[in-house]
Each structure stands twice: as C-alpha cells, then as structure tokens.
Amino acid sequence: MKLKIAVFASHGGSNLQAIIDACRNGVLDAQILAVISNNADSFALERARAAGIPAWHLSAASIPDGENLDERILKTLEAAGVNTIVLAGYMRRLGSALLARYRGRILNIHPALLPKYGGKGMYGERVHKAVLANGEEESGATVHLVDDEYDTGRILRQESVPVMPGDTAQSLAKRVLEVEHRLYVEVLGLIARGIIQL
Ligand code: GRF
User: Among 45, 26, 25, which residue's Cα sits nearest to residue 34?
Assistant: First the structure.
C-alpha cells in the first residue's frame, strides 16, 4: 500500500520539512496529501504551502459553533485520500473518531527514549529538563504508534544520543531534533517498503 500521509503539526514543523524533503528527493516513497495544524500561526502551514501541499488550520476557533472538530478533521483526511497520520509536534489530543478510523496507522515522534520521560505533560523542554535533572547519560528519540493514552503505543524505532557535560535543555533538544529528522524519515521508509508492518 502506498503511503498517503497527513502530517499534523502545531509549531515549527522541522520534522514536517524533513519528510517533505525526503519525498521530494526520492529518499522516501510516500505522498504528503495534507498538513493539519491547530495553530493558525504554525510555521508548518507555511512550509506546506511553500511545498504546494494542501494545508488546513483546523481548531475549535476555525470551525463553526456546534461542528465537531474531529469529524471535520476526519472528513478532510478522507477527502484527501489519507491512509496514514504522522504526528510531528502536534499539541492536541486526537478525538476518538479519528483514533478509531486510523487505529494502528497513526505515528508520533517523541524526543526521549520511551517509556522513560513520556506521558501527560511531558513535552518540549520539560522532557529535556527532566532528563538533565535525573543525570541521565543518554537520551534520544522514539517513533511509536499512537493509542488512546499518551506515549504508550507500540515502539517502532528508537535512536539514542549522548547527554554531554554542560548540556542545557536547549542544547540537548537540538541534538535530539537532528536525530528525529533522520529517524522519522527512516521509519516511514521501512513502512513504505513493508519492513515495518502497521
Ligand atoms: C519534536 O521535538 C517532537 O519530538 C515533538 O515536538 C517537536 C516538534 O518539532 N513531539 P518540529 O515542529 O517538528 O520542529
């Protein structure tokens, strides 16, 4: 099955960019059919538009009162022909309709070595601060499937990075993010080639 992806992102979208670039230069055999953001100001929307990918700001603020946001997202994905959802810094929990329809085909990337440093409230700088506070010698990135809980779905791949003396949350985040870009593309490639089965 050809990977027909929707990428969901709330902020900078550097993982989105890595996936766009990999599709463009032929490293990854997949199509990005939609980019969805709950944040109108997300740079991810600009990256999508610059690459000619249909992009939507979908949030409670962008849809009429009374309309269900998850139903709207679901309709958008189905109309676009999406078969796989890639979460890349998406800061909103998915609704049950979306989770049910795409069960087993929703991926996320987390900036730590799950199951450590995951769960509700563990995102962004908080993750890296906790890693440093515990004196860990390594951290890393994890690509996993999304289930009904936070960060508990099947782990598909992980890659570690060293924690260096003098690291700050920012310097560690930067080191992890570089790995994320490579790891996400690699995992999507393994899925596209049937080596990882969803
Ligand atoms: C990444 O660190 C990812 O692990 C986390 O959110 C961040 C997104 O970064 N879930 P970007 O928007 O892809 O640059």
Answer: 45
* pLDDT tens track for 144-169: 999 988 889 999 999 999 999 999 99
Residue among 11, 110, 144, 181 flagged as catalytic: 110
Q: Active site includes 144?
A: no
Ligand 1 closest atom vs CA 90:
10
Q: What is the largest CA-CA distance in the chain?
A: 52
Atom of ligand 1 nearest to the CA of 173: 2
Q: Which residues are near ligand 1 (CB < 6 Å)?
A: 9, 11-15, 88-89, 109-111, 177, 180
Ligand 1 centroid to Cα of residue 89, in Å, is 4
Q: Is the pTM of this model over 0.85?
A: yes
